[in-house]
Write a structure and sequence with these properties.
alpha+beta; OB fold (Dihydrolipoamide Acetyltransferase, E2P); 2 domains; five-stranded mixed barrel; 3 helices
């Protein structure tokens, strides 16, 4: 029915299409493992089942007068002005970290009210707020 050239072209194009689809799938799969979306303290309270072995990224504002620094640890409260979560962090704090400023803390939940953070991300300057934090605050 079709000639040998047409069959080879069809086979070649099919092979390229399969390789392209497989490449896109693998790239998206690898990105999925590395992306951690942030959630607000209110969303933590509303989650039905909490996986305590899963890493969470929680964003909001540092509550005024909530920062307690010791030689080994920094404790503070992240709020979205509806709910709050206590964050415990051992490590180097970003220079721009302060009260009433936007922050994202990444770590593992101990319960619905306590996050043991492994990373703290502070905003860049006084006008910058991560878009996710801004949207979450608008919703609340």
């Amino acid at each position: 029915m079709y000639g040998k050239k047409v069959k080879l072209r069809f086979l070649f194009l099919s092979l390229i299409l399969i390789v392209l689809i497989l490449t896109i799938y693998l790239v998206l799969k690898s990105l999925e493992k590395n992306v951690v979306y942030f959630i607000s303290p209110t969303e933590i309270k509303e989650i039905g089942e909490i996986n305590y072995k899963k890493k969470y990224r929680i964003g909001g504002m540092v509550k005024e007068n909530s920062i307690v620094m010791s030689t080994e640890e920094v404790n503070f409260i992240i709020t979205d002005y509806r709910n709050e979560i206590i964050v415990k962090y051992s490590g180097v704090i970003p220079n721009l970290f302060s009260e009433k400023k936007g922050v994202v803390a990444e770590g593992f939940l101990k319960d619905r009210n306590i996050l043991e953070a492994s990373k703290i991300l502070a905003k860049h300057d006084e006008n910058y707020m991560p878009p996710e934090v801004k949207e979450a605050l608008k919703e609340k």
